[in-house]
Amino acid sequence: MLSEMKQQKASHDRSRPSSSGRGYGVRWQQYRKRFLQAHPLCVNFEDCRHRGAVVDHIKPYNQGGEFWDPGNHQAMCKSCHDRKTAREPGGFSRFHTNPHVDIKVALRKNHLPRKKSLMVLDCYHGEGAIWNQIKRSTEKTIQVVGIDKRQIAGELQLKGDNLKFIRGLHLGIYDVIDLDTYGVPYGALRAVLGNRTLKKGTAVFLTFILSIRGRLPPDMLSDLGYSRKMVRTCQALFSKNGFDKMKAFLAQCGVKKIAYINVNNKFYIHFKVE
């Protein structure tokens, strides 16, 4: 399956015009440099903690957005930009699905609270693939409230920055909180565990993926006792054994027991708020 997706993506890329042919020539590169100097941080910085590397078209120009309008531009890191592009019409999403969705569904079904009716806060909702599948395969009544930066037709959804919503929501009404995304959703996890309305017994599901060259968020390392100076000096060094550091952070927050599945260093985690 993975090799087939790679072949499809390669074929898709070969069929696209060159970057210059799509308008990203010398003029764009000069503009990109100026824009990123003026907007150095990713628009999702509070969550991803990365600097901007790409000037993104908020409304894609092939969907009617203005190519050269600064009001239609935002700075994004590559990983955030890739996720956004994958979800857009005509993007890579037709070749890219939520990875290991069956494993994620099984983990959640095995650890659902023992109630007939559940309220779920899905903090990285996207198209709701995981919870749509769970709702179809269980007799429980499940109400999902999703958070995402784009609105999905027919979905009960909060549109916008998940960190702002998590900090302001009364989390006590939710039985399940889901933090499934690509990377390390440390900002959202920290906001959930720091919300005083979070109730005991809440089931939390979390995806933790640190690539070979990936780095843990600086705030996470600081919370674990590494000084800002140490982190700035060699963030990659202190990001080694990232999953052990994630477990240490959870323990520091009072999480005594976790269940997880490791698939090629992609960790799918569950714990219960105590």
Structure report:
- The protein is of the alpha/beta class.
- The protein folds into 2 domains: 2-94, no CATH class; 101-272, 3-Layer(aba) Sandwich (Rossmann fold).
- The protein is built from 12 helices and 9 strands.
- It has helices spanning 2-15, 26-38, 45-48, 78-87, 101-110, 129-136, 162-168, 186-194, 218-223, 228-233, 235-238, 242-252; strands at residues 54-57, 73-76, 117-122, 141-148, 157-159, 176-179, 203-209, 258-263, 266-272.
- The strands form 2 sheets. The protein has a 7-stranded mixed β-sheet with strand order 5-4-3-6-7-9-8, sandwiched between helices. Strands 1-2 form a two-stranded antiparallel ribbon.
- β3, α6 and β4 (141-148) form a beta-alpha-beta unit.
- α5 packs across α6 and α7 (162-168) packs parallel to α8.
- It is globular and about 60 Å long.
- The two termini are 39 Å apart.
Quick take:
By secondary structure, this protein is an alpha/beta fold. The chain has helices at 2-15, 26-38, 45-48, 78-87, 101-110, 129-136, 162-168, 186-194, 218-223, 228-233, 235-238, 242-252, and strands at residues 54-57, 73-76, 117-122, 141-148, 157-159, 176-179, 203-209, 258-263, 266-272. It has 2 domains: 2-94, no CATH class; 101-272, Rossmann fold, CATH 3.40.50.
